[in-house]
Specification:
The chain is α/β, with parallel strands linked by helices. Helices cover about 30% and strands about 20% of the residues. The protein has a single domain, classed as 3-Layer(aba) Sandwich (Rossmann fold). The two termini are about 15 Å apart.
Length: about 240
C-alpha cells in the first residue's frame, strides 16, 4: 500500500483522480477498453470533481457501482445511483456503459446475480473506493465476509455505519437510514488490477490507522487493502493524523 498525504482535500482529490485517469488510459492503450469501479459518499466529492475533467476517452470505459441501499428510491437525496448520475455520468461525454446496482429491484437475489455476471465479464482495471469510519470497505461492515466469492451480496448496516450516513447529512434522522444494502464483496474489490482509495477528514483517522498499521482482520475490513499488490491510499492531513 502506497500512502500519499496532502494538505487539503482538493489536492488529495486531484491527485487521486490523476492517478485513476493514468490507470484508465494505460488500460485503454493496452486493450482499447477500461473497466472502473466508483464509490460514493463525502470522501469521493473532490476526487470525482477532478476525475470528470481528466483527459480520458470515456467511450471506452465501462463503470460499475460499488453499493446501494435496499429499497431507497433513486430520487432520494441519499441514493447512490442519483449521486453517481449527477456527479459523474452526466459530467462526462460518451461513456460506454454504467452498470448501476438497483436497490429497488423486485428480486434482490436476481439483481445481485445480474450485476455479478456483468462484472465477471469485465475484469476491473481500477477501483476507486473509500474507508468508512468503522473501517468498512464498500458496505462490508465489521465483521466483514472475507471469504464469499459472490461479487455482490446483501449486507446488514451496523450502527456506526448508519450514524456516519446520518452525520454526513444524507438522512434527516437515524431511523431514516436504511438497515440493509447491496454491496460489492471484499473478494470482488480485491480482484481489481489497481485500487485508488481516497480518505479525507479527522473522523476517519482511527479507521485509517487500523487499515494501514493494524493486523489484517475482518473487524477492520479495509485492512485487507494491505494485501493488494497495487493499492494507493490518498489522505488529507487530518485523516493521516494518527499514523506513526
Amino acid at each position: 500500500m502506497d500512502l500519499h498525504v496532502y494538505g487539503d482535500k482538493a489536492s488529495m482529490g486531484a491527485a487521486a483522480a490523476t492517478q485513476t485517469a493514468a490507470l484508465l488510459n494505460a488500460a485503454i492503450e493496452e486493450r482499447d477498453a477500461a473497466n472502473l469501479i466508483l464509490a460514493t459518499g463525502a470522501s469521493q466529492f473532490e476526487m470525482l470533481t477532478s476525475l470528470v475533467t481528466q483527459s480520458v476517452d470515456w467511450s471506452k470505459v465501462t463503470v460499475f457501482h460499488l453499493d446501494e441501499y435496499l429499497g431507497l428510491s433513486i430520487s432520494h437525496p441519499a441514493s447512490f445511483r442519483k449521486y453517481l448520475k449527477e456527479r459523474f455520468e452526466e459530467q462526462v461525454t460518451g461513456l460506454r456503459a454504467f452498470h448501476y446496482v438497483d436497490g429497488e429491484a423486485a428480486d434482490i437475489a436476481a439483481e445481485c446475480e445480474r450485476v455479478g455476471d456483468l462484472i465477471a465479464a469485465h475484469p476491473i482495471d481500477v477501483a476507486c473506493v473509500g474507508i468508512g469510519e468503522n473501517g468498512h470497505l464498500a458496505f462490508n461492515d465489521p465483521p466483514a465476509d472475507f471469504e464469499t466469492e459472490a461479487a455482490y451480496l446483501v449486507v446488514d448496516l451496523d450502527e456506526a455505519c448508519r450514524r456516519q450516513q446520518l452525520g454526513e447529512g444524507w438522512f434527516p434522522t437515524f431511523d431514516d437510514v436504511p438497515t440493509q444494502a447491496i454491496s460489492m464483496s471484499i473478494r470482488q474489490i480485491m480482484k481489481s488490477r489497481a485500487i485508488v482509495c481516497t480518505v479525507p477528514d479527522a473522523r476517519k483517522a482511527q479507521a485509517v490507522k487500523g487499515a494501514v498499521e493494524g493486523p489484517v482482520t475482518n473487524m477492520v475490513p479495509s485492512s485487507i487493502l494491505q494485501e493488494h499488490p497495487c493499492c494507493d491510499l490518498y489522505l488529507d492531513e487530518p485523516a493521516a493524523s494518527l499514523l506513526g
